[in-house]
C-alpha cells in the first residue's frame, strides 16, 4: 500500500508527541518514481530502509542514537528484515566506510553494533511464499513474462487481491479488504506485477527474525488476523531474541484496530519506545 494509506495519521499521532517521522513510498509505489509500477521487491525495500536510516541520521532534528523503525503489514515484514540485516562497525560514521590504514589492528574496535535503536512491527506478513500448488503456475507465468519483457512487451500484472479475498499465490486475505480501503478513500491500485509473486516465492522473514536481537523489538499482533495469520506472527515472535515485547490486540482483525482503539494501542508503543530509547 502507498504511504497515504493509514500511515499519515500514525505519523501525525507520534509527531504530536515530539517524535520526528519519515514516511515514504517504496520504489514504483504511490508518489515514488520507478518502473514498472507496483513491482514489489522486499529485499530492495529493506535496503532502501537502510538508506532511509542513513539519510535521516544526517538531519539536525534527529538524535542518531534514537532512530526506530515502524512498519505495518508488508511494511512490518520489511521492517523485521531491515532490523535483522542492519549492522555497523563500531567507531565508524554511518556515511563513510571504516578506514583501516592504522599502525595496528589492535587500535580498531572491530565489534559490530546496530544503529537502529528499536523497532515496531504491526500485523506483519511473515511468509509470502504461498501454497505449494500455486508455485508452478506462478513460475511458468513469470518466465513467460520475463521472455516478453526482453522482447519489449509491457510487464504482466495480476490482482493483489481477488474478489473472494484470495491472492494469486494462494494466500487468503479478508475479502472485504479492498472495498474497505476504497470506502476509506485510501488509494490502493489492486494490481502488482507477476514478478512480484515470483519474488514472493522465496521470501520469508521467519529465518531472519532471530538476528534482530539485540535491537529491542515490539510485535503488535491482532488476535484474529486473517490477512497476515496470527499464528505466523506468533511463530516469528517466538524465534526473536531478547529484548522483545508482544502486544496482542484482543478481539481485533488485521486493520479494524484503527477504529476506536488507536490511542490506547499507540500509547503502548510510545511507552515501549520511551523505555528502550530513554527519552
What this model shows, in words?
The chain is built from 8 helices and 8 strands; from the N terminus they run H-H-E-H-E-E-E-H-E-H-E-H-E-H-E-H. It has 279 residues and is α/β, with parallel strands linked by helices. The protein folds into 2 domains: 7-128 and 204-277, Alpha/Beta hydrolase fold, catalytic domain (Rossmann fold); 129-202, no CATH class. The radius of gyration is 20 Å and the shape is globular. Mean pLDDT is 87; it is low at 92-106. Belongs to the polyketide transferase af380 family.
Average residue-wise pLDDT: 87
Determine and state the CATH class of the largest domain. Alpha Beta
Any idea how many domains? 2
How far the N terminus sits from the C terminus, by CA atoms, comes to 31 Å
CATH homologous superfamily title of the largest domain: Alpha/Beta hydrolase fold, catalytic domain
Strand percentage: 5-15%
Order of helices and strands: HHEHEEEHEHEHEHEH
Q: Give the helix proportion (percent range).
A: 25-40%
Any guess at the CATH architecture of the largest domain? 3-Layer(aba) Sandwich
Family: Belongs to the polyketide transferase af380 family.
InterPro entries: AB_hydrolase_fold, Polyketide_trans_af380
Amino acid at each position: 500500500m502507498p504511504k497515504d494509506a493509514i500511515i499519515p495519521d500514525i505519523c501525525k499521532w507520534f509527531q504530536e508527541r515530539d517524535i520526528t517521522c519519515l514516511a515514504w513510498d517504496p520504489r514504483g509505489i504511490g508518489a515514488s518514481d520507478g518502473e514498472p509500477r507496483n513491482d514489489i521487491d522486499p529485499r530492495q525495500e529493506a535496503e532502501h530502509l537502510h538508506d532511509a536510516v542513513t539519510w535521516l541520521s544526517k538531519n539536525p532534528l534527529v538524535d542518531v542514537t534514537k532512530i526506530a523503525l515502524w512498519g505495518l503489514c508488508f511494511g512490518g515484514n520489511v521492517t523485521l528484515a531491515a532490523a535483522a540485516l542492519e549492522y555497523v562497525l563500531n567507531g565508524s560514521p554511518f556515511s563513510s566506510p571504516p578506514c583501516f590504514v592504522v599502525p595496528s589492528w589492535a587500535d580498531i574496535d572491530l565489534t559490530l553494533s546496530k544503529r537502529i535503536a528499536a523497532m515496531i512491527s504491526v500485523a506483519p506478513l511473515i511468509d509470502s511464499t504461498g501454497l505449494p500448488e500455486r508455485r508452478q503456475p506462478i513460475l511458468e507465468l513469470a518466465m513467460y513474462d520475463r521472455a516478453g519483457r526482453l522482447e519489449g512487451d509491457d510487464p504482466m500484472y495480476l490482482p493483489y487481491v481477488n474478489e473472494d479475498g484470495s491472492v494469486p499465490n494462494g494466500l487468503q486475505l479478508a475479502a472485504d479488504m479492498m472495498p474497505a480501503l476504497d470506502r476509506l478513500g485510501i488509494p490502493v491500485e489492486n494490481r502488482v506485477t507477476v514478478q512480484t509473486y515470483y519474488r514472493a516465492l522465496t521470501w520469508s522473514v521467519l529465518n531472519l527474525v532471530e538476528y534482530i536481537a539485540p535491537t529491542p523489538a515490539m510485535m503488535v499482533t491482532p488476535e484474529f488476523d486473517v490477512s497476515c495469520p496470527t499464528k505466523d506472527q506468533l511463530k516469528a515472535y517466538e524465534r526473536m531474541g531478547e529484548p522483545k515485547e508482544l502486544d496482542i490486540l484482543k478481539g481485533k482483525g488485521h486493520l479494524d484496530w484503527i477504529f476506536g482503539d488507536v490511542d490506547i494501542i499507540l500509547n503502548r508503543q510510545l511507552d515501549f519506545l520511551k523505555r528502550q530509547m530513554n527519552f
